[in-house]
Amino acid sequence: MRHDDKPRCAWADSAPDFPHYHDTEWGFPVDNDQRLFEKLCLETFQSGLSWRTILSKRENFRLAFQQFDFNKVAQFGEKEVADLLNNGGIVRNKRKILAVINNAKRAQEMVEQEGSLAAFIWRYEPDENSLPPPETQTTSEESIALAKALKKRGWQFVGPTTIYAFMQSMGLINDHAKDCFMRKEIDQARREFMRP
């Protein structure tokens, strides 16, 4: 599956579309609210499933959920829910669909109260010096705290493991393996990143 001989995180070799995702997205810091919301939603759908399943359907999810514009998703009603449950291109789980619509409303409230999702989420960025070696854990103090804070604000399907995976992918931590060629690139991107 490897399309070159660069050393990557072990998981990046486990599916054909993983190397590109690993090399161009995973771990780069993100401050765009729509992208942060999308990732939270996709992690919700991944719960109990593989990331490969979700990544292969990501474009379908984007179409079905208005490119994850939370102001649009917050307006979804019974008709949209019925359409989503009939959409064979996505994961048709009613509880998860309703959670995404609920979370869109919570995202609107957060923007109103905090200025942006990014401003709130990046407060939970861990101190790099306190992090364990890469790829050794599935939760952290910060992911537990952020999950708790989101749940307190009414968000759903945001457990500590889901939030940790979100933090890894959105660049709040650099969890690329020590010998992965992307680790230095992500370190550099994180150094240059302007925190919201």
UniProtKB/TrEMBL annotation:
Any single GO BP term: base-excision repair
Keywords associated with the record: Metal-binding, Zinc
InterPro entries: Adenine_glyco (IPR005019), DNA-3mA_glycosylase (IPR052891), DNA_glycosylase (IPR011257)
Residues given in the record as Zn(2+) binding sites: C9, H22, H176, C180
Alphabetized Pfam families for the sequence: Adenine_glyco
SUPFAM superfamilies from the UniProt entry: DNA-glycosylase
Example of a GO MF term: metal ion binding
Source species, domain of life: Bacteria
Keyword Ion transport applies: no
Presence of keyword Endoplasmic reticulum: no
Name of the protein in its database record: DNA-3-methyladenine glycosylase I
Source organism: Marinomonas profundi
